[in-house]
Structures are given as C-alpha cells and as structure tokens.
Design goal:
This protein is mainly α. It folds into two domains: about 80 residues, Multidrug-efflux Transporter Regulator, Chain: A, Domain 2; about 130 residues, no CATH class. It is built from eleven helices and five strands. The protein has a three-stranded antiparallel beta sheet. A hairpin with a 2-residue loop joins strand 4 and strand 5. It starts with about 25 loop residues before the first helix and ends with a helix.
C-alpha cells in the first residue's frame, strides 16, 4: 500500500545504473495494483508503454515510481482525471511535493480535531433516547457518520457542545433545526473567505499551476491567512450573538418590567376602591379639616 509520504516521480536507479525490469504481472505485484489497472493507466496516458522484448512488454523502475504516485493520489481522493493533470504538471517540471503542499494548504482540514467514535450507548447517555429519524437527520447533516454499530464524529467538539446544551434542557430536535437554518449562511461565508485566501492564485492563468519557484512562498502565505479567517468568523459571530442576545433580553426584561409596573398600579387602584380601605393622605387631610370645623362652637 502507498505510504503517506508522496513518492518521488522519478525514482530510477542513480548514476545511470541498470534499472530493474518487470513483466506486467511483476509490476502489478510490486506496486500493489492489478494488471487491469496498469493497462488502463497506459490507455489514459498516465503510464508510458513498456519496451518490447519480443512479444513481452518490459517495465522498469520509472513505471514503479509512476504507479506509486498514482496509488498515492488515489488514496488521497483524487480522480483519474485529476491525476492526469497532476502527472502532466510533473512532466512539465513541477515537484509533486510542492503541488501536494499547495493542495493541502487550500483543501486541507481547517480543524485540528481528531475524529471520535461513539457507540449508540454513548449517544443515549449524552442525549437520552432518540428516534431513528433523529439519528438519520444527524447523519444526513454529516455531524455523525455511521460505521457498523458505531458513529464517528469528525468534529467531536460540536457533539460535546450539543450534549451540554441538551443537558440544559434544549431538545436535540431544536439543535438540529438550528444547524439546518445556520448551515447555508455558514456555507456562504466560507465561500467568501476561501476566495479571499486563495485569491493569490488569480494572477495565474486559469487551469494552470503557479511557476515552480513561486509555489513554496504561496503555500506559506495561504497557511498564514487560514487561521486569520477563522478568527474573523469567530469575532463576527461573537458580535452577532451579543447583539441578538442583548436585543432579546432587553425586550424581555422591558416586557417583564411593564407587567410588574402595571400590576402594581392595578393593586393600588384596587386598594383605593375597597370599602373601609385606608384613605390616601390627601383624603385624610380633607377629612381631618372637615372634622375640625365641626368641633368649633
């Protein structure tokens, strides 16, 4: 199987030493692929044809190196069409590690969280019993990925936060609803920010890679900008949450105060209108004055 380190596209024997030779069966076995794949790659131009020795095709270490490159890229999720473009770039003088470094800077994960596996019992403990439809909605959103009897979260921090909110009495259904409402907006924000990050590529012709000498500096610049984009989003999100919660709580508190004041005013009015109720200060003064007048001879 291909290793995680990208192989060199030209691992031929150094100093002009004789290269190893392989039949198609031997080549397939050495590179952990199939004869059918070898021939398919040849048909697509990904692999140069073998030398002929009589009726037998003879491959060498350059074919081994190229197949290792193809296997490595397939393992990273590239299609054969993508690989064809990359192979052309390699043939044009680009270094594979530089190309993959640029690809990783642009398309690599933005989160450093490690995926975490949860059993169904774990999820029940965290969220309480859930219906199959609830689990289906969560998996459709990609928050959890089902693997056999277990579930894998690519961003376990989000799952842990949701569990904490569920413990505070917020139903899981409402949490999922909130994510469904917010996601299109986050997607739009992400597209804008990614465009800002990779805009440095716009000065090159569309469909072509930057010059070999400029790739390392471009990769470093993109890696520097990436965390700044996340900080930008976090700052704006905090501002929006503060504004929304302030507006909501301010309105709620104002409503409560209005009710309290209205209730107090009604209570005073009720007391004033009851028989035998103590008269107000003004009424007592008036009554006292009248009583004093009657006591005079």
């Amino acid at each position: 199987m291909p290793t995680s380190t990208p192989p060199s596209p030209a691992d031929a024997s150094p100093d002009g030493a004789a290269s190893n030779e392989y039949t198609v069966d031997e080549l397939a076995r050495v590179t952990d692929t199939t004869v059918r794949n070898v021939r398919a790659y040849q048909d697509r131009g990904l692999l140069t044809p073998p030398r002929k020795r009589g009726r037998v095709g003879i491959y060498d270490d350059t074919h081994v190196a190229r197949l290792k490159v193809i296997n490595h890229l397939l393992a990273r999720g590239y299609t054969l069409a993508n690989i064809q473009d990359l192979i052309k770039a390699i043939d044009d003088g680009h270094d594979l590690r530089s190309i993959l470094g640029l690809e990783n800077a642009i398309g690599g994960r933005w989160s450093h969280e490690r995926p975490k596996t949860y059993s169904l019992a774990d999820l029940v403990t965290m969220f309480g019993p859930q219906t199959p439809s609830s689990l289906a909605r969560v998996t459709e959103l990609g928050l959890l990925e089902r693997r056999g009897l277990s579930f894998v979260a690519k961003t376990p921090g989000l799952i842990e936060a949701a569990a904490a909110m569920a413990r505070e009495g917020i139903p899981v259904r409402e949490l999922v609803d909130a994510i469904m409402i917010a996601r299109p907006h986050f997607d739009a924000i992400a597209r804008v920010l990614v465009d800002l990050v990779v805009r440095r590529l716009d000065r090159y012709d569309e469909g072509s890679l930057p010059p070999v000498t400029e790739v390392p500096a471009l990769v470093e610049a993109i890696w520097r900008v990436r965390p700044l984009s996340a900080t930008f989003v976090e700052g704006e999100m905090n501002r929006a949450l503060e504004a929304a919660s302030g507006d909501y709580l301010g309105g709620r508190v104002a409503t409560i105060l209005d009710k309290q004041l209205s209730g107090a005013a009604r209570d005073e009015a009720d007391k004033a209108g009851k028989p035998g109720a103590a008269p107000a200060d003004g009424a007592r003064e008036t009554a006292g004055a009248a009583h004093g007048k009657r006591e005079k001879p």
